[in-house]
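Retry 2 of 3 after timeout on previous attempt. Resubmitting structure tokens to design endpoint.
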């Protein structure tokens, strides 16, 4: 899903990773799916993004194997929501690192413009992207919450990879 150039065949693993994760919209889409917000209209509203931008990012994340599509019935027609794959769930330390780094080094524009990484196991905020700094346990989507003060007064448990993703739904177009 390169926006500037195709780095997918570079010899540097960081360059290959940035080919997928180097676009801010893609990272924000992943954030929304980790928050359990995988439906197109809900993501569009939360991100305040154009349909074309969101459609392109979702298609790229599906193509890269980070998200898959799952059908649901909205009462009138079948639509699709986006869910994490195991590969998508493995991006958690990257997103955690961005949030932790931002909290440490960038000023917040308001008192509520903060997002903290919480280890659900011990209930403590962590300053590490992959290990709880309080109890030492490895952070996973199943045992991590994000506390975004602009979203909710309490930490939100993260979505985990979908257990059953139908291959036919993984490669369709964005809803």
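Retry 2 succeeded. Sequence:
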């Amino acid at each position: 899903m390169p926006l500037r150039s195709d780095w997918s065949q570079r010899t540097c693993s960081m360059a290959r990773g940035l080919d997928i994760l180097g676009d801010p919209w893609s990272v924000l889409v992943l954030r929304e799916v980790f928050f359990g917000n995988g439906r197109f209209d809900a993501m569009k509203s939360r991100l305040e993004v154009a349909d074309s931008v969101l459609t392109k990012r979702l298609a790229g994340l599906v193509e890269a194997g980070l998200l898959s599509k799952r059908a649901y019935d909205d009462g009138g027609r079948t639509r699709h929501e986006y869910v994490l794959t195991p590969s998508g769930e493995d991006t958690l330390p990257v997103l955690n690192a961005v949030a932790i780094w931002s909290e440490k080094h960038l000023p917040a524009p308001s008192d509520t413009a903060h997002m903290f990484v919480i280890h659900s196991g011990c209930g403590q905020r962590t300053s590490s992207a992959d290990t709880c700094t309080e109890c030492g346990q490895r952070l996973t989507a199943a045992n991590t919450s994000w506390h975004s003060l602009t979203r909710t007064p309490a930490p939100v448990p993260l979505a985990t990879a979908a257990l059953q993703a139908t291959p036919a739904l993984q490669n369709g177009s964005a809803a």
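Attempt log closed. Confidence is low (pLDDT under 50) at residues 164-175.
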